[in-house]
Model the fold of this input.
Amino acid sequence: MSGSRGDGIEEHQDRSMIKALFWDNDGILVDTEGIFFRANQETLSAVGISLRWEQFEEISLVRGGSVLQLAEKPGTEEFYKLRDKRDALYADLLTREPLVIEGVRDVLETLKGKYLMGIVTSSGHEHFEIIHRRSGLLPYFQFALTMKDCAHFKPHPEPYLKAIELSGCRPQECLAIEDSPRGLASAVSAGIRCLVVPSRFTKGGDFTGASRILNNIMELPQSLQ
Done:
């Protein structure tokens, strides 16, 4: 894992320019990655395929693909049927457990009114709505971009390019907060800096190019000073 933890004058000046914070959703605001893995694992198990975490990490968290391709070719009717079963199971699992990551609510309260804030996620809109129906987090944000809002998903830069446009800020005035290599790649490709808070599922990832790597989300307010 690599990234800058510089505390020099130049970096402090750069941080003082930040006007907009773009937050990833899964793994940053809410703890859903393990639940999504379980939904994929159970769906594939039903068709005789044993999904390992290492496969899920590489295909889903690093490349931004679908592990369902291990069973069916993407774009086929069989693939879509399998995806529908996985999505229904994931939606059901999301209603059963607390999801908001510890410290997130306090951090958002601290940053409220100081920055324009948006959520930038490649999650499906239906699942996003289920998650935030009971999270209480959406009032902290000025906008949210989900899968339905983009033709391309992370690691493609389009989600963050749209966020920059919506914010009305210049790229150098924006900062992304991510937990995965594909999210970092998306932000950097869009020309904005990215601060990484690895989750328990992504802490072994390659975060080369991150402006800073934090141990947990509670360190964010101090890192912006």
